[in-house]
Amino acid sequence: MKFKIFLFFIFLLGLSCKSQPKNEFGVRVISDYKQYKQQVKGNPAFELVDLKTIDGFFFDIKYATENNFTNEIIYPSADAFARMQVVTNLKRANKIFDERGLAIKIFDAYRPYGATVKFYEIYKDTTYVASPYSGSRHNRGCAVDITLVDKETGEELPMPTAFDDFTEKANPKFEELPQNLIANRDYLINTMQQFGFKVYPSEWWHFDFNGWESFPLMDIKFEDLKK
Fold first, then answer.
1. Which pLDDT belongs to residue 18?
2. For residue 227, how many other CB atoms are within 10 A of its CB?
3. How many Å apart are CA 3 and CA 145, to the nearest integer?
4. Using alpha carbons only, what angle is made at residue 119 by residues 29 and 225, rounded to the nearest 5 degrees?
5. What rounded mean pLDDT belongs to the chain?
6. Which pLDDT belongs to residue 130?
7. Domain limits of the chain?
8. Which phi and psi angles does 82 have, rounded to 5°?
């Protein structure tokens, strides 16, 4: 019964999104905070939860700094949000990592659509940067960029590359690496898969949550989400 109700709300959401006019790139994007709140009122699963209100995660929000591939500050604040179901399963995965003395470090989560447009203007290779003509799963609040850290020291586990590395070494299946890097990467990926996350084919750090297609593209500002 609950699943049928959820599907009904998805249907209503679809009708709402279809009434949204398309932008210059031919996609529908929700940028009205009131419209977003109406969706959440209709179905709490659409809420974008503030990840920094939850214990156990580490953060290094790269796009709030110049330490990213754009060399620019993209976000006005170092915030991280994700849909409620994403957060629930991210917490479950973190409990597994905790058993080994590890924790998830979050580089990025929900990304306003405007940031995706800017990324594309700077770097048009859609192997690594989402096209504004389709949008990113980050824009839907259903993707996270993460790594693992020692929860006592905060030091990152050695991985094949740094975040936002646009080389073949970032591919989750690249094997010409030291064995410890492969082991750390595969442990992260295999554990996340147990909780409904799928690694992106070109980026070992990027995970999409199952069912992302059911959520609309968003361009809601962080400061509005923190109201």
1. 56
2. 6
3. 29
4. 45
5. 91
6. 85
7. 49-225
8. -155, 160
